[in-house]
């Protein structure tokens, strides 16, 4: 077990034990582990007297945990969670309005009108394609969801389960909103025979593809970029017709026993220190005038490849969409 895994395990136990007291915070997040490790180092320096206990879960599991704990909440704040999930009325009822310092620069679409949440960052989906395996199989580079219907991709595609992974949902949602419900479901049904497995993690499909286990991992752009920078034979593809994306929101739990420090942490997420780190990790930054670092595989203007996502629609329809997906594809 590596140091970061030990840290996650230890802090998870702390989160289960009790809600944090003064000088201690229990933070629930769905941010990727690689990001969390670096952010927390910087946040700890900015808040030296506060012990930061972080529990990192996938989007779906984080939501399930919050609702299971609704009568006895354990977290002090939610940090970097899919806004589509945050907009669930059951979750909003657990949050206390707080306007973090600096959050007023965000556009209206990137913060709740009543200050229950704000989202300075986001993430995009992508196909992670193992170029070595693709060449070995004699397959052409897939440029769209339709390309994944080809017989040669049978058993060569991995995708996250939208009922467990926010990344899975953003992909499904983008297909449905881009093509329309009927054509969107038909497209997903056409690709399903080629799916080797549906995973609970949004990053796992890319990691499996880069390891050469599969040709294509329907996954996160972040993990694809990291794979390229780490020397794996990976190319990231942003599917034609629009790339699914999600905003990562944060908010204060109304039940927190340490709201003073929780507010300080939320303020830190809009600080110059945090913003500088977003520029290293994020392709999507919603703070005016701030752009992410130009990473390999990304276009100069990422807005040109994004699907026309309506987040209110995403939130309102997610329960029905996930139920339909489970009926059609759950294994």
Structure summarized in a few sentences:
With 331 residues, the chain is α/β, with parallel strands linked by helices.
Describe the protein's architecture and organization.
The chain is of the alpha/beta class. It has two domains: 3-122 and 245-285, Periplasmic binding protein-like II (D-Maltodextrin-Binding Protein, domain 2, 3-Layer(aba) Sandwich), CATH 3.40.190.10; 123-242 and 302-329, D-Maltodextrin-Binding Protein, domain 2 (3-Layer(aba) Sandwich). The chain is 40% helix and 19% strand. The protein is built from 13 helices and eleven strands. It has helices spanning 3-17, 33-46, 59-68, 83-86, 89-92, 131-137, 166-179, 181-191, 204-210, 221-229, 259-268, 272-281, 311-329; strands at residues 24-29, 51-56, 77-82, 95-96, 118-130, 157-160, 195-199, 216-220, 234-237, 245-253, 284-285. α2 links the parallel β1 and β2. The relative contact order is 0.18. Residues 1-21 have low confidence and may be disordered.
Count structural domains.
Answer: 2
| CATH uppermost class of the largest domain | Alpha Beta
CATH fold-level topology of the largest domain: D-Maltodextrin-Binding Protein, domain 2
Kindly state the percentage of residues in helix: 40-55%
What is the end-to-end distance?
30 Å
Q: What's the Cα radius of gyration?
A: 19 Å
Give structural attributes.
single chain, 331 residues, alpha/beta, D-Maltodextrin-Binding Protein, domain 2, eleven-stranded mixed β-sheet, 13 helices, disordered N terminus
